[in-house]
Amino acid sequence: xxxxxxxxxxxxxxxxxxxxxxxxxxxxxxxxxxxxxxxxxxxxxxxxxxxxxxxxxxxxxxxxxxxxxxxxxxxxxxxxxxxxxxxxxxxxxxxxxxxxxxxxxxxxxxxxxxxxxxxxxxxxxxxxxxxxxxxxxxxxxxxxxxxxxxxxxxxxxxxxxxxxxxxxxxxxxxxxxxxxxxxxxxxxxxxxxxxxxxxxxxxxxxxxxxxxxxxxxxxxxxxxxxxxxxxxxxxxxxxxxxxxxxxxxxxxxxxxxxxxxxxxxxxxxxxxxxxxxxxxxxxxxxxxxxxxxxxxxxxxxxxxxxxxx
Length: 309
Ligand code: ADP
Hints:
By secondary structure, the chain is an alpha+beta fold.
């Protein structure tokens, strides 16, 4: 039964008798002279209140079930679509190589092999996203926090991103300039940087320009990832961090996704006791700013000394 059907059935099957019996109860209380009539009126009204309570609970449970079923169906469709895109490219390039059409064209042959490797990286990143979210949502992720400089980890994520976009026309600038110590989990930090970079790439059209800046500021280490993409309105700013949420697909262009990237980023930022904010303007681009608290210098030194010992 559809949700609307269930609501109509509840209204007809429960609300009408309840309204009638409540009216009878009120009339009995108002007109009844004896205590029997008062007792009867109170009983009828209590029964009606219990029935209304039950109907409300049933309606809430039904709509919740309906919402979860819809989310699951959307999720499966979105993930499948997201995985299919790189798979289609891999098959296309592999078939071209298999036919031997490029055997005499070493340049194009190499380009095809590179494209297959690139699409495989995307596939792996998409699968990582889903598995990371599964672990996070079931509290199964066990971060291995340690203090150190995050520059190397951020660079590793950037290198992976560069492998994902090689051969693509992107003006990518990266400025890593930090010496401060942060308490962080290697995989979690990698996932924050990669997810933000992947989004910057996905939601930017032609003439892609992406900038990553990592710097120390006021007892914090700041990570900024800025793009000149499609952006989004202010009303979306809070919602985009919700799991499975995607801005209207007409605005997001043809980019596929399951709505998990920013939910993972927010989860990881909270684990790192950091904060995240976004500035975005439709048609102009977006800038995600993540701040991590730097380990105070004296504490940082002793932790580094402990590590050396
Ligand atoms: P996904 O990209 O898989 O849809 P995310 O959780 O990473 O899921 O992002 C949620 C939504 O936020 C996206 O669907 C997109 O509409 C919007 N979004 C995220 N990053 C950007 C960005 N850099 N520019 C414009 N829109 C973005």
